[in-house]
Write a structure and sequence with these properties.
With 93 residues, this protein is an alpha+beta fold. It has one domain. Helix content is 16%, strand content 32%. It is built from two helices and six strands; from the N terminus they run E-E-E-E-H-E-H-E. The protein has a three-stranded antiparallel β-sheet. Strands 3-4-6 form a three-stranded mixed β-sheet, with no helix packed on it. The termini are far apart.
């Protein structure tokens, strides 16, 4: 069964550099109620406003979201949401 995500064809997803693995990792956030969230932004300026101007990112096609979920499990997708400055750049699954 294919999952359907109500997203535009592509989204910008914040990521972090993992020096040990020498690769980028998806930057997940924990919500106030304890869910693990994949942050997705519909435009680059929205990512910079929501996640900070220096945030690294990858461009993901909507149909690539299930593959991200398999590698980095998350409970919810938050679109164009502000990440509090104190939580930016932290991987918090």
């Amino acid at each position: 069964m294919t999952e359907h995500f109500d997203l535009p064809p592509v989204v910008y997803v914040p990521c972090l550099w993992d020096a040990r693995a020498e690769e980028r990792r998806i930057a997940l956030q924990r919500t106030e109620i304890g869910q693990v969230a994949l942050m997705a932004y519909t435009a680059l300026d929205r990512l910079q406003d929501g996640a900070g101007p220096g945030t690294e990112w990858i461009l993901v096609k909507r149909e690539g979201i299930p593959a991200i979920r398999n590698l980095s499990p998350f409970d919810v997708i938050l679109v164009d949401q502000l990440i509090p400055p104190e939580a930016r750049g932290l991987e918090q699954p």
